Every structure is written in C-alpha cells, then in structure tokens.
Amino acid sequence: MEKVPMTMNGFQQLEADLKKLKNEERPAIIQAIAEARAHGDLSENAEYHTAKDRQGWIESQILEIEDKITRAEVIDVARLNGDTVKFGATVTLIDEDTEDEKIWQIVGEHEADVKQKKISVTSPIARGVIGKTVGDSVEVAAPGGARSFEIAKVVYK
C-alpha cells in the first residue's frame, strides 16, 4: 500500500472534511431522498434522481478520504530543518530570467492550492527542487517551457 505524504494541517483538513461529509452532508441527502420519494412516481422524479446522484458523489468522497487517511504519512514540518529542500519546505525561488521571486510550500497532492502558495510534491517545480540546497540553480520543465530558478531560501515552519 503506497503511503500518501501530507502535512499535519493537510491531515487535519481531511479529518474535518470527512466529519462534515458523514455528519452533515450524508444525513441531509438521506432526508432529501426521503422527501423526493414522498412526491410519488420515482421514474420521472428529477429531485429524486438528483439527490441519488449527490448521494453517490458523497459516498465516493467518503471512501476516497478514508483511503487517504488510512495511507497517510503525516510529516511534522516544524521538526524539519536545514538548507536542503524536502517535503514540507517553504522555498523561495528566484526566476533567473525575470528576477521574480516566488515562494512555495511543498505539500501533499490533496493540499495543493496555488492561491495559498502551496504546490504538490508531484508538481514539476517541486520535483525539480527536492534534494537541492540553497544557492543551487535548477531547470524546471513548466507548462510554458523550461524555466530556470535559483533556490534563495529554504524554511521549515
């Protein structure tokens, strides 16, 4: 069974999502199905079919989250340190062409959120910088073409 790396925050978010699905979403959809059933003929009841579809989606989400939790390898980023980029690191990169500074935290796949400056450990940038140290120059195959970055800073928080 393949482990799924994640930060403590990512693990806690999964647990919160699972709790919401089981304690709020599931009971609400069961109630909606019961109400739609009460309207009569199920073969032409759009509310019933919509609610059943939603129930299927909720149940699949529950199974997926339970699987991730079971396979979770929670990494306490606060206990890590050093100049080498590892999972959980917050990395400051300088684009060697434009001199733009980018700051990214490397997190698990389900935690990735570009708006929050969190990238997946499987992303091209993360794969390019993992194992490198401050001062190293890396070339990353990005969707817009190859880009070169210098690793300016590595922080674990």
The helix content, as a percent range, equals 25-40%
Query: What value does the average pLDDT take?
Result: 92
Low-confidence regions: none
Q: Which secondary-structure class do the elements indicate?
A: alpha/beta
In terms of DSSP E residues, the strand content is 25-35%
The main sheet comes to:
5 strands, mixed
CATH top level of the largest domain is Alpha Beta
First and last CA, distance: 29 Å
| CATH superfamily caption of the largest domain | Transcription elongation factor, GreA/GreB, C-terminal domain
Number of domains: 2
CATH topology-level fold name of the largest domain:
Chitinase A, domain 3
What's the helix-strand series? Answer: EHHEEEEHEE
Number of extended strands: 7
CATH architecture annotation of the largest domain:
Roll
Q: How many helical elements?
A: 3
Backbone shape: elongated
User: Radius of gyration over alpha carbons?
Assistant: 21 Å
Physical arrangement of strands within the biggest beta sheet: 5-4-3-7-6
Structure commentary:
The chain has 157 residues and is α/β, with parallel strands linked by helices. The chain folds into 2 domains: 4-75, Helix Hairpins, CATH 1.10.287.180; 77-155, Chitinase A, domain 3. 39% of the residues lie in helices and 26% in strands. The chain has 3 helices and 7 strands; from the N terminus they run βααββββαββ. It has helices at 8-37, 46-70, 124-129; strands at residues 4-7, 72-75, 90-95, 101-107, 118-120, 137-142, 145-155. A 5-stranded mixed beta sheet has the order 5-4-3-7-6. Strands 1-2 form a two-stranded parallel sheet. A hairpin with a 2-residue loop joins strand 6 and strand 7. Helix 1 packs antiparallel against helix 2 (46-70). It starts with a strand and ends with a strand.
